[in-house]
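Internal ticket #5521
Category: modeling
Description: The requester needs a full-assembly model to guide mutagenesis choices. All entity lines are attached below as received. Residue total reported by intake: 955.
Assigned to: D.W.
Attached entities:
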Amino acid sequence: MKWKILIILVLSLVVLGCGETSESNKDVNYKTGFVDLNVDIFGTNKGYQGSQLDQRLLIRNSLGYDVENVQVEVGGFDRRYLDFFLYQQEFSSIEGRSVFNPAGGRVEMEYNVNIITAEKGAKDHKQKYRIYLGYNSKLELSDEICISPGSYLVEDENGCQKGSSLKEGSNSISSGQGAPLGITEMEVISKQGETIELRMKIENKGDGDVKTVSLQKVTIGGKEITCKFRGSSNSEVTIVGKEGIEMNCQGNLRVRRSLSYKTPLLVELSYKYELSFQKELIIGSSDLIS
Amino acid sequence: MVDNTAEKLDQAGSDTKKYNKRLYQVGSKWYKNKAAADKEASKSANDNAKRKRPIIVNKAADDNAEERASSQAEKKPKKPSRLKKYAAAGALAAGAGAVGSFKNRGFFLFLAAGIVFFVTQFFGIPKWYALISLFFMIYSTLFIFKKNGTFAVSLFIIWYFFFGSANLVSIKFYIIPIVAGAAILHGISSVLRGEESFVIGATEEMIVGVAHILVFFLDVGLVQWLAQEFGVILPTFVQGMLNWIPLWMFIGLFVMFNDDEKKTWLTKLLALAAILYLVAVIFFISPDVAVEELTALLPGPEELVAAKEASQKNVNPAWITVKCMTTDLTNTKVCIEREKELYIYKTACEEKGVKEKTEAFIRCIEEEKENAKNQAGFVEGAVSDIIKQVTKIHFVVSSTRITTTKPRAFFPGTLVIENPREQEIKVKASCSFKKLKEVIPGEIYVRSEQQTDFVVKDFREEIPMQCKPTQDLDGSYQLEFKAELFGLRTPSFLKRAFFSKTDSFDLNEKTEDEINEDHFRSSKDKTSQAPKELARINFWFGTTEKMAIIPNDEIITFNSWVENTAVSSGKILRINGYYFNLLEEGFSVKSGDEDCLQGFENTVSETRKTFLSSCFLELPSELQNIKEGRFDVETFIAELNYDYEIKKTLSVTADVPVKTEEGFV
């Protein structure tokens, strides 16, 4: 009897274990989350007067989009002690993560640090410098929006089913769009199914700085609507820090319906972004230097 | 007999409250009924006599106590006032309490150490203060801690007082065996006497012994000595506590409040006063920061005491607080600051030999105030943590007090030069003997040859020298060893960051944050730094002294000073040259002193700081064109080339025997 129970238990475990389809078989959405370029630096971090330290910089693109015009620059170092050879380099593009390249593209660069001075009689001391990494990229928000014909939002089985799409009122879009900045909030205001107004908040959730954000296009049901950044007449704005910026879009709806319905929304923005990393080197004791 | 008397004294002292109450009752009855009062008075007197008996008579005289008591009662006025009765009772109780306080084991130490402290506050610390501290240490181990720690303290005294100094680093090689040996001895002694186990005996010996040795060192001024000799920077709080808290007194206080100890009104009152004093000192010492290292000879007790005395040349925070609270209650804080400053000026004038309460003294105070005002605008510099190769030059003498019977003895001294950067230092040595206005020149002998000038190039040199007077000495003199050092060089460093200011406040702020995070994490990073040598250049440039980040569109000011960092042991003779590498880096003088970045200065101020130069600078073009959002950082160097004079003074006494017909006396 005991053996039977044991066999049943083992079989149950096997059946349960094989019951779920594996995650890898599902479609992965790479344009989600808030992600940055990943940077790793390899090389010796201690040197003495006159020595040259070779450093290797590896940049991996974890964004859901390609990055272009990638500029790497070394700066912010004390010129009395350090000098850099090949401290500026450009890459035309790095491929983003996609079904064809799930890990994202990567590039490498090498640069050399020369320790030009070590004070006589000085002990080991640290010197810091910065690596600036600038690039251009874009972000897309692709979702469905719920349009209700009445004065009040009606959730019915036609369109505005609960939790299925961006509805009238304030919507939090916390998951991001696969870039360091993203649209984090959206307020949908539909005026009796005839016109629609979208209020969006764009925030920088990455470690770097957004130099500029430009509006590419916003479409509802394939129809472009007009948008502008709040407090600016330009289609390009600068975001400093983590404050974020708001964008307002307004448009007429093509079809008037008696029931609520869903329609596709697409927001496309491009931006220039810059990351900076602090790096540290140790200048060794100059005891043996005359 | 003595013990019995003492027990009775204790009884009298501890029962004060009950006794007073009883006396009051007696007094009340006397007023209610005269006859009854007479009777009561007689009874009361008898009681008094019985109670007083232990104080005024010994046991041998006790037999006549009844008679004397009644006769005392008869002698009493018929209507004694209530006030007198209470006064008599109070005095009796007070006296009994005061005498009873000595039964408390900590009381004597508390009282004696307290008296010594207050006396030294008024009359200065004597050279033999270490002997007083030694006495307290011995007394404490013998009578307070029941002979625990006695072995350790005894061995320590033999080692320290009879065998002299040891190297600070090697001190552990002496102290550890001393304590271990003492612990073993105490452990064995405990077992042999059957009092306690070996482990308990040894442990008690170790704890009490080490604690006493530590307190002794702290009390005679070890910490102050370390601060003065090695520049060990102590938190102001710690330094203040060690300066103004009499350690042995507070050990006595803690013992006094042990549960087993007898407490009287006197112990309580004195303890309260001591605690209030402690609170006053703690409350008015401002906190600060610390650290550094050391290696050298452990000083003799006199040297430690001298260090403590020198360190106490500061105003006692508790004194001035009390003074200001009584004289200027409305503005106590300002008063304290004013008193502190006044004390510093007064001390400086006294050190100059100006007599107090004279016009010259008032003038001197005014001059000191003026100097302080001028110094306030001076650039502060800091000691560099990075440069570990520091040039150190000082005299070492085996004793600060030498007595000889020869009129022309050779007095030894050693000039120690640590020259890790292997500079070529020219030295001119000399010596003299001073007694009031009399100055007797001395001859310097270096390595057995009369020689005054020599050159040092090596990493470290110890130059033993001897000073011989050119005339016969008679009596006490101040022997002054002097060395003039030529061509010393000390570098200084200053870091500055430059950035391109934009219209965006946020972007500017972000860049400044990055710069501060990478390069100016502490305020020291913003000031010029130099190794801790005899003198250094302090300099800054930018918009203000503390602004290390310079926007590239600003007019920048440059200022520099020379600081004599070892002002207590010597002076700068001349500045042969100074140099800042800013010219080399493309900076140019826009206006101000032409020789702002390079020059020499013949006149050097006697004060700690000498102003060097000031001008406005123009940035090099590359710094004017920094890319937006980027910054440049550079450490600039300065070098001071100077001549310096160091001195070391010691007391010498030529006690020359007088030749008579019967021989030498």
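Resolution: model delivered.
Comment from assignee: Residues 34-56 of chain B form the longest helix (23 residues).
Ticket closed.
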